[in-house]
Design brief:
Strand order of the largest sheet: 2-8-7-6-5-3-4
Helix content: 40-55%
Number of strands: 12
Shape: globular
Largest sheet: 7 strands, mixed
Oligomer: single chain
Bound molecules: pyridoxal-5'-phosphate
Number of helices: 16
Mean pLDDT: 96
Structural class: alpha/beta
Low-confidence stretches: none
Strand content: 5-15%
Order of helices and strands: HHHEHHEHEHEHEHEHEHEHHHEEHEEH
Length: 483
């Protein structure tokens, strides 16, 4: 048996590369990453051409090992350099995500030390890093000292955690679900409805409050709906407001909605996945007035704080409500620190997760290394770029623009001299996408096919917006000539 153990160790030895091998691999990987970043500006924002049909053998796992240079050479065309290039300056589609370089370096360190960021006693420093990030966010939005939350993998999970907390804080029981009412709008992100279903509340009444002309939740309609539902014997429970809708970037009137929530004893959850980080800059802060009066909220650092994908956050005004909805114990966890000290609440007590990565290091290191100022400036820059694009588009012939943007998304469509508006705009979208230098997406607003420019990447500046505007004008002329 001893011989077999030794033989197995020898076979497993590639799992523990020596210093020379590690350093060689590091150099290769860093070289690859540097080339990627150097080439990115010259790449299309979107590779319009369908990726070539790479043989399955490259993807499949085989017994034999593959050399690193071969792997990296394969990765470039088959994974990295195809379709949507998220960090590209010209990516103006959906909610444009872009990952800071320093955050990627921090991710490397977090994976190397592999701190167990689920439970306080195992990694107190890592958890204090995350807690101070949450405290920073809570301070930004104006939450009181008793607020905290959890760093999640993204906004959808953060919405789920917020909704489950609201459910338990109001002691909703299954036999009441069908009479329970949630107030949201047609512009509420679909992850809220998904979270309600996952939380067992699929049968709850979802009241879609009408929107005003700015695509914001209409408060008089909200009040009327609550009153009617009460009179009908239903149980109004939760308002889901949005600080920055995905389609148009509209910020619901949070101050007034908070007043309605408070006076009716409803839980107010604010989805600020995209918009909430804008509180960092003065014009954003002004728009978000009332956010501090919500009971829970979410924000996505992997959107508006330029983190690589995989970082969301949920904040709850009263962290004990979050804990009550998620706390569990298990015999084999008995060695962890007692719960008596609130400073020692573990992330696992506040989320559906137990084992989880040290996902906060990327944001903490980025903020520490660069300071908050660059983030504040970048967000205000995006807001101004959107206003600029809105004004310039409205000056272009035959472009019909939506309302002035609250945050950093501009909606518009081209009104052709003749023919079907939607068909024309589909062709225009396709022409832009085929060109590839910028990439925009479309949506339906009030049942109308609408184009949008979403400005959020940290690499997106004035010259990209100017390029987008001139491409739109040029392609619109070309499309008009073909029909
Ligand atoms: C992106 C987004 C979500 C979902 O967040 P994920 O991180 O994609 O899970 C929720 N709400 C809004 C408003 C969003 O823009």
């Amino acid at each position: 048996m001893i011989e077999r153990i030794k033989e197995l160790r020898r076979q497993a030895s590639p799992l523990e590369p020596d210093a020379a091998w590690r350093s060689q691999m590091q150099n290769q990987v860093m070289g690859y990453a540097d080339r990627f970043l150097a080439d990115l500006p010259g790449m299309p924002a979107f590779f319009a051409q369908a990726p070539h049909d790479a043989p399955q053998s490259g993807f499949s796992i085989a017994e034999a090992a593959t050399p690193l240079d071969q792997l990296l050479a394969w990765l470039a065309p088959n994974v990295d350099r195809q379709r949507l290039m998220l960090g590209h300056a010209g990516n103006l589609s959906f909610i444009p995500e872009s990952g800071l370089h320093v955050a990627a370096l921090a991710d490397y360190l977090a994976s190397i030390s592999n701190k167990y960021a689920g439970v306080y006693f195992a990694a107190p420093g890592a958890i204090r890093v995350e807690r101070s990030l949450l405290r920073w966010m809570a301070g930004l939005v104006g939450y009181p000292d008793g607020a905290s939350g959890d760093l999640t993998s993204g906004g959808s999970i953060a919405n789920l955690v917020g909704i489950v907390t609201a459910r338990d804080a109001h002691r909703l029981k299954a036999d009441q679900f069908a009479k329970t009412v949630v107030y949201l709008s047609a512009q509420t992100h679909h992850s809220a409805a998904k979270a309600l279903r996952i939380a067992g509340l699929g049968e709850a009444v979802q009241r879609h409050v009408p929107l005003d002309e700015f695509h914001r939740m209409d408060v008089p309609s909200l009040m009327a709906a609550i009153e009617q539902d009460r009179a009908a014997g239903l149980n109004p429970w939760l308002i889901i407001a949005t600080a920055g809708t995905t389609d148009t970037g509209a910020v619901d009137p949070l101050e007034q909605i908070a007043h309605v929530a408070k006076s009716n004893d409803l839980w107010l959850h604010v989805d600020g996945a995209y918009g909430a980080p804008f509180v960092l800059c003065p014009p954003g802060k002004q728009l978000m007035a009332g956010l501090e009066r919500s009971d829970s909220l979410i924000m996505d650092p992997h959107k508006s704080l330029f983190m690589p994908l995989g970082l969301g956050a949920v904040l709850v005004r009263d962290v004990y409500k979050l804990r009550d909805a998620h706390y569990y114990d298990a015999g084999y966890l008995q060695d962890r620190d007692s719960l008596g000290d609130p400073a020692q609440i573990s992330p696992a007590d506040l989320s559906p997760e137990l084992t989880r990565p040290f996902r906060g290091l990327r944001l903490w290191m980025s903020l520490k290394l660069l300071g908050v100022g660059p983030f504040r400036a970048a967000l205000e820059e995006k807001m101004l770029l959107a206003r600029y694009a809105h004004r310039r588009l409205s000056e272009l012939d035959r472009f019909e623009v939506g309302v002035e943007p609250d945050l950093s998304i501009v909606t518009f469509r081209y009104i052709p001299e003749r023919g079907d508006v939607e068909a024309f705009n589909r062709l225009l979208l396709k022409a832009i996408q085929d060109d590839g230098r910028i990439y925009i997406s479309s949506t339906q607003i009030d049942g109308r096919f609408t184009l949008r420019l979403a400005i959020l990447g940290f690499r997106t500046h004035l010259e990209t917006v100017d390029l987008a505007l001139s491409l739109l004008a040029e392609k619109a002329r070309l499309v008009a000539d073909t029909i």
